[in-house]
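hey so i finally got around to running the thing on that chain from the lab meeting. sorry it took forever, my laptop kept dying and i had to restart like 3 times. anyway pasting the input first so we r on the same page abt which one it is
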Amino acid sequence: MFQIIREFPIQFPYNFDYLPIIVLSYFSFMLVYLIVSPKVSSKLSKSFVNLSQAQKIEWNVRFTSTLFSMIVSIVCIYILLVDHAITLSPLIYDSPLVKTNLAIVMGFILSDMTIIITNYKLIGDAFTLSHHIATLFGYAHSLTYSVMPYFANFRLIVELSTPLVNMRWFMYACGYDKYSICFFLNGIVMTLLFFTVRIATIPLYWYKVYIVLDSALWIKMRNFRYVMIGTCILLDIINIYWFKKMFHGAVVVFQCNWQYYEKHHKTHQLEMLSAYKKQVLHSISFANSILRESTKHGLHKISSRFTDRNKLVPKILADFINRYSE
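ok and heres what got predicted. didnt touch it at all, straight out
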């Protein structure tokens, strides 16, 4: 299933065995964009037919990226949970499953870049292209030279947030009321999930990098170290920028929803406030009771241990006094 490479000095031969998978992935996602998405979307949503040309392109792009993200993120999580050897050997590791996943990623990125470049006037985004180029550059090194497989696979966790981001755009395009409960819940969950997989994982990722800095193998990685660090810093900056915009949008949507309910559904809003207040007070009371009981139990345990260890002190002291008082 896998092969951990530990020989010194380490060679980094080119490996183009997964080039057919990259090509297959490229044409598969182009097929989804050009044929599958328009046919499926026109049947699932009546709004798709009435969209503008730019919106239809954006719709098909997001449909394709949603399918891609679900495939890649599931494989990524499976590797992290099942293949423990990749965690033990994060710098050099040979796994067909990891490489296949990276090849699928590279094929999708190339197809997405093709679509963006050919339709740049309609959906062009320099920030997205920068993200794609950095990702492609880093994954190409990992796939071709079998280096940094853990770090390359770990970065794919971010794709878990893509479906909800795309779903929000789909709801915009379909004309969903921005005050609807579905729109509101999607925004909250999307922001929380985006933060969890793209922002909260940043310190975990760099902590893993810090751990391997002192290893002898890290010195042998040569310029691959700078490729990994440089591309990941750029990707983290882009994700932080995106989250900043997303968080600002989430705050605006929350305020708009709150003001809307305050104007049109004041009674319902007061009921919600009352329910939230009861829930918060109950949580605080529960937490205080746990803290109080745990503190009481801990003090009792400490005092009992102290008593057990020193229960002979009074007897020894009494014997000492009696001996010298005679």
